[in-house]
Every structure is written in structure tokens, then in C-alpha cells.
Design a protein that fits this description.
The complex is a heterodimer of chains A (about 400) and B (about 250).
Chain A (H helix, E strand, L loop, with lengths): L19 H27 L7 H8 L17 H14 L1 H21 L2 H13 L4 E4 L15 E4 L3 E12 L6 E7 L5 E7 L5 E2 L14 E12 L11 H35 L1 E2 L2 E2 L4 H29 L5 H25 L11 H11 L6 H13 L6
Parallel strand pairs in A: 1-4
Antiparallel strand pairs in A: 2-3, 3-7, 4-5, 6-7, 8-9
Chain B lengths: L1 E5 L2 E3 L7 E2 L4 E2 L6 E3 L1 H18 L2 E8 L4 H10 L3 E6 L5 H14 L4 E5 L10 H9 L2 E12 L2 E8 L2 E8 L2 E5 L11 H7 L4 E5 L29 H10 L5
Parallel strand pairs in B: 1-6, 1-8, 6-7, 7-13, 8-12, 9-12
Antiparallel strand pairs in B: 2-5, 3-4, 9-10, 10-11
Helix pairs in contact in B: 2-5, 3-4
Classes of the chains: A alpha+beta (about 400), B alpha/beta (about 250).
Chain lengths: ~400, ~250
């Protein structure tokens, strides 16, 4: 891939709404991305390999659980900081952001929010440093958009729980040291369990052949009579609100993150359009190309304002899951459209690995689908404004 | 060992450069400012390496107005222990050097490490002037530095090669490439920087010996003219009549 020449685009001076600390955080993550990730990402994506050495690096810069409290080895930063970190990582690659999202929002967050003090102390500092790697098991082969129907279950065997079932589409699973797994108890209530690699009957087969998030590793979680110690149950939550609380946190990160992918596509297309000459003038001088570029920055600007406001609401503890759904849905939609339009501006060059656009485009097909599909988020908004459940 | 690192704030290299007020003032509109790279990448990180190896304290000092806080906080996030900001508009190298030297004189420092130059004005002045004002040893363009038993050995770049010099402390070093490995701050460092001391010092009002009369941007590169290989006569005519080089 070519040298990473990315420059930030801030058409409405939204930077004025950020603190100096936010800008320093952005500069920090961007420097890390430009120095360590941009030079290698295309190669790993082409080979469909996860650059596992980055887990430690992401831990060192503080990209795992940055908004969780410092007393557990986390960043203690605000929600806008978390969003900025996700955006800068996804500016590089949605798969890299996914790795950090899963570790921070889907593994560390539930342990912090629903776990015991012992569980927090045991797992959070190591997860924050990247010494432990985690994954999150909710989706099942027969239950995607309808997680309440899950079949994975556990039985109380006196001194342990006996876990059976299977999860799929699990980011990080083949390399994870621990999995936060959602399963039903004998009363049919959904509970969270921390399952550790090495427990007998627990396997994590890799999912092969993905055309998307190729630099992120995905797999299954299979539980065949796995004995889980009782102290590994997350004590402080019961029901679907447990996993949905995690998803709200992760979706919030995606709402910021997908704009990063959009910015990278726009930045690439704008630079290319100004340099590439056809019919004696730069592509950027043709009305049809200007329309594409002008619409892109308009949508990016709207999305930037939306997530900034969502971040301030989240800092105040006022962001609702439905508001988060709206932002996640909007960011994914505009990012995917911008990736497609950018790809067109680059013509044939847009399909090569020399530029990041096709990689973003393929990645975003996953981002618009996972953590609540595009349609499901629409129904969440629909239910919120009408009061009528249209899911089934 | 107590080390003082003067840091400057400079426009990011990707900034659009424009001048206002009849070309007498640099326009800061929409300009992103960063820590001067040689101060950050080589001077500050060398100071941190020395502290980590030998113990001590790293203090950064910046001459500038309140809007420089982001740059100072970054230095603290990377690992400096404390910071001073001399409250002044930093337009003249001599005035800045006097303020830094005044602070260094009474601060109990063993070493001052600056970057070799700032990337905006490239004037290469402050390090040398601070050393002169303090009457300390000065070594410029240092790419390697070892300190043991109060003695320092530095390798410095000279025309066509390097030179190794020995000198005693206290001293002023101007750092260049290879002196240390650049560091990226992390979130914990950024958090810690919130509570590290940043003291604002009033400027003593040293004389400014220079002022900017005007700025001028370089002429745009001229368009390239292509001449067919069969048309040497035309090439000669252009070189003679237009380029006026033959």
C-alpha cells in the first residue's frame, strides 16, 4: 500500500468542541496507526491473517477499555475519548477497530459492569494491557437478530456449572484466552459466564473464507459439557439486558469508528481526484466528481456532529440505546456509500490494494451487519418513536 | 540528574501557509500546531532515556501563550515530570533564550537538551544562545550522548562525517536524528499528564533583538515545457530567449 498521507477533515470546525486532551488522544492514536499499522495492514488483509502482535501494542497505547476506571488498569477517560480512539483505529481498518471494540466493550465492559470485585481485579488489568485476549459469545447458528432464542445453556451441578451449546461469528475467538459467554440457566434466564481457554470441552474453530474483516480473526465457540467454576458467573446481571448493555457500548464505538473508514475513503478519493488528470484537467475539476466529493464531506460532517452529540449525552449518562442505534446505523450507511463512491472516483485503481478503499468497502459490509443489522437498528428506531414492536 | 528540555510549538508540516497584515504576520487560521519534532523525537526522549537509566528528573519549558497547553501536556504525557510555561509571545530567539537561561540558572539543572532547530523558522539559535548566557558548554547536532561520572561524551554531525567530543556538565546539547527513539504517548500517560505540575512564569521582559519585517512565499514552480527530440533548434531558442541560460 502507498504511504499513509491521511489528513483529518473537519469541515464544521468540530475540533473546537473537543478538549486539548481529546486532540492529544487523537494525535496519539493516529501516530501509532501511521507508524505501526498502515505499513502492514494491507498485507495482512490480503493474506487474511490477523496481526496478533498488535494486541500488546493496542494495550500499550491504551486502546482497550479506555473509558473504564484507572483503578483497574484502564484509561479513566471519557466517552468522546473512547469514540475518537475507535475512529482512528477504524480509519486504518474496521478489523483492527473490531479487535479493540470486542476486547474493550464486549469483554472488559461486562466484567466491569456485571462482574464481582474479584473478577474485575483478576481480569481487567491484564485485558487492558493486552496480556489477556478476550471474545464475546452471544450469536448462535440459529439465533442472530433474535438472541433471546439462544440454545446455549448451563446446569447447576453443585460445585460447578455444566455448559453446552455453540456460538458463531465470534471476533477474536480462535486466539482468545477468555470468552464472555451468554447462556440460559435451568430457569431459562440469560446469564453471563467467563469461560477460559483450556477448560475441557471448550474449542474455538476458526471461520475461513471471509471476504471482509480479513485482518481480524473470527471463529466459533463450542461448548461440549464444559465445567465452568461457579466463581466465573457474572453475578450482577440477569436477562437479555446484560448482553444488550455490552452491545450498546460497542455500537457506540462503531458509530464513531465507521466515520473513520469514511474519512479515509474520502481523503483518498479527494487526493486522487486532484492529482489524476483526464481530458487535460484533474478529475476533481469535473462536476460529476465534485458532486460525489461534496456529498461525501456533507455526510461525514453530519455524522461527525451526530456522534459528538451522542458522546456528550453518553458522558452525562443520558444516551439511550435507541439513540446509539440511530448513530450506528447512520455511520455505517454513510461509510458504505462513501466507500462505494470513492471507489468509483479511483476507477480501476480503486479495486487494488495500493489504496485502502476496497478493503474498507468489504469491511463495512460486516460493520453494517454485526452488532445489530442495518434493518434491526431501523426497527429499534421505529419502535422507539411509535411504541410498537415490529420485530416479529 | 536534572534535565531541562525547552520545547517549541510549530505548525504541522501539512498546514497551509498564509500571511496576513500586508505579509507581516503568519496566519494561524485553521493551522494545526504540534510539538517541534526534533524537540519531541530526540531531545525529550533522550532526556527520558537518561532519567530511566540514571534516575533524576525531566522538566520541560516552553515560551508561549496559554494556547500552547496541548503541546506542553503532550510532553508530560510522553513522560516529562513537570513543566514551565513562560508567558510570552515567542517571536524573538534572543528574548526566548534569556528567559530559558534565567530559569535554568537557578533550577539546579545538569543538562539542557534542545532539538537542533524548529521546523518553522529553522533559525537554529536558542540552544547556542542559552549556553552562552549560562556560560555552559554547548554541543550542537548531537546524534549520540553518553554520560558517566559527570563527564559527557557526544558524537556530533560535522560536514562529511562525525566528531566525538568530551565535555563536562552542566552543558547544553542540541539534539539531532538518532539521538533517541521517538515515543508515542499512551492513554495512561495522557491521564497522568492531567495532574503533573504546569507552572506559568511571568516573562522578565528581555529585549527583542529582531522583528519580522515581512514574509514572502517561494515562487510557484514554473510549468515544464516539452520539446520534441527532433526539434533541437526550438530547444536552443527556448534556452536562449526564455530561460536565458545560454
Amino acid at each position: 500500500m502507498r504511504q499513509d498521507l491521511y489528513q483529518h477533515h473537519d469541515y464544521y470546525l468540530i475540533d473546537d468542541l473537543l478538549t486539548p486532551e481529546h486532540k492529544l488522544i487523537r494525535e496519539t492514536v493516529r501516530s501509532y496507526v501511521k507508524e505501526k499499522l498502515s505499513p502492514i495492514i494491507e498485507d495482512y488483509a490480503q493474506r487474511a491473517e490477523f496481526p496478533k502482535h498488535i494486541v500488546k501494542e493496542l494495550g500499550e497505547i491504551g486502546a482497550f477499555g479506555p473509558s473504564l476506571p484507572a483503578e483497574y488498569g484502564c484509561g479513566g477517560l471519557d466517552e468522546i475519548s473512547y469514540g475518537i480512539i475507535m475512529q482512528e483505529l477504524e480509519r486504518c481498518d474496521s478489523g483492527i477497530r473490531s479487535t479493540a471494540s470486542v476486547q474493550g466493550s464486549l469483554v472488559m465492559y461486562p466484567i466491569y459492569k456485571y462482574g464481582s470485585e474479584e473478577q474485575r481485579k483478576k481480569y481487567l488489568p491484564k485485558l487492558a494491557k493486552g496480556e489477556l485476549f478476550g471474545c464475546f459469545g452471544l450469536t448462535e447458528p440459529n439465533h442472530g437478530s433474535n438472541p433471546a432464542g439462544m440454545e446455549t445453556n448451563f446446569k447447576d451441578k453443585g460445585d460447578h456449572y455444566l455448559l453446552n451449546g455453540a456460538k458463531m461469528w465470534i471476533s477474536n475467538s480462535p486466539l482468545a484466552d477468555i470468552a464472555v459467554v451468554w447462556a440460559k440457566n435451568e430457569q431459562g434466564k440469560i446469564r453471563g459466564l467467563i469461560v477460559e481457554r483450556g477448560m475441557e470441552g471448550f474449542t474455538t474453530p476458526t471461520t475461513h473464507g471471509k471476504w471482509s474483516l480479513r485482518a481480524s480473526i473470527t471463529g466459533e465457540l463450542v461448548f461440549d459439557n464444559v465445567k465452568v467454576p461457579k466463581e466465573n458467573l457474572l453475578p450482577n446481571v440477569e436477562g437479555l439486558k446484560g448482553p444488550l448493555g455490552c452491545l450498546s457500548t460497542a455500537r457506540y464505538g462503531i458509530a464513531w469508528g465507521a466515520i473513520g473508514a469514511a474519512l479515509d475513503c474520502y481523503d483518498t478519493a479527494l487526493r486522487y481526484a486532484k492529482e489524476r488528470v483526464q481530458f487535460g484537467r484533474p478529475l476533481a475539476g469535473f462536476q460529476l466528481q465534485q458532486k460525489k466529493l461534496a456529498e461525501m464531506i456533507t455526510e461525514i460532517t453530519k455524522a461527525q456532529l451526530l456522534v459528538w452529540r451522542l458522546g456528550t449525552l453518553k458522558n452525562e449518562g443520558k444516551a439511550t440505546p435507541a439513540q446509539i442505534s440511530m448513530a450506528k446505523r447512520n455511520s455505517c450507511e454513510i461509510a458504505l456509500n462513501i466507500a462505494r463512491e470513492s471507489r468509483q472516483i479511483l476507477g480501476g485503481m480503486g479495486i487494488t490494494g495500493e489504496y485502502p478503499i476496497m478493503r474498507h468497502l468489504m469491511n463495512l459490509e460486516t460493520v453494517i451487519t454485526y452488532e445489530g443489522t442495518h434493518d434491526i437498528h431501523l426497527l429499534i428506531t421505529g419502535q422507539d418513536i411509535t411504541g410498537i414492536n415490529a420485530f416479529q | 540528574m536534572k534535565i531541562l528540555v525547552p520545547i517549541s510549538k510549530v505548525p504541522d508540516t501539512t498546514s497551509k501557509i498564509a500571511f496576513v497584515d500586508n505579509n507581516t504576520k503568519f496566519s494561524t487560521d485553521n493551522v494545526q500546531f504540534i510539538m517541534n519534532p526534533t524537540d519531541e523525537w530526540y531531545a525529550l526522549t533522550k532526556a527520558l532515556e537518561l532519567k530511566e537509566a540514571q534516575g533524576g528528573e525531566v522538566v520541560v519549558i516552553h515560551a508561549g501563550l496559554a494556547d500552547s497547553e496541548q503541546v506542553i501536556r503532550k510532553a508530560l504525557a510522553i513522560g516529562a515530570d513537570s513543566a514551565f510555561r513562560i508567558d510570552m509571545d515567542p517571536t524573538d530567539a534572543y528574548a526566548i533564550s534569556v528567559e530559558i537561561a534565567n530559569h535554568a540558572k537557578t533550577g539546579g539543572y545538569d543538562l539542557v537538551i534542545t532539538g537542533k532547530e524548529t521546523i518553522d523558522y529553522n533559525s537554529f539559535e536558542v540552544g547556542g544562545m542559552v549556553a552562552e548566557l549560562l556560560d555552559w558548554n554547548a554541543v550542537a547536532l548531537v546524534s549520540k550522548l553518553d554520560i558517566a561520572g559527570g563527564k559527557a561524551t557526544a558524537t556530533r554531525d560535522i560536514e562529511g562525517g562525525t566528531e566525538t567530543v568530551e565535555f563536562s556538565l552542566p552543558a547544553v546539547i542540541c539534539a539531532t536524528k538518532d539521538l533517541a527513539a521517538a515515543r508515542i504517548p499512551n492513554m495512561k500517560g495522557i491521564m497522568a499528564s492531567r495532574t503533573k505540575p504546569l507552572t506559568v512564569l511571568a516573562a522578565t521582559g528581555a529585549d527583542k533583538l529582531t522583528s519580522i519585517a515581512s514574509y514572502q512565499t517561494p515562487e510557484k514552480a514554473k510549468e515544464c515545457k516539452y520539446v520534441s527530440v527532433d526539434n533541437v533548434a526550438e530547444l536552443v531558442r527556448l534556452l536562449h530567449e526564455e530561460a536565458k541560460v545560454i
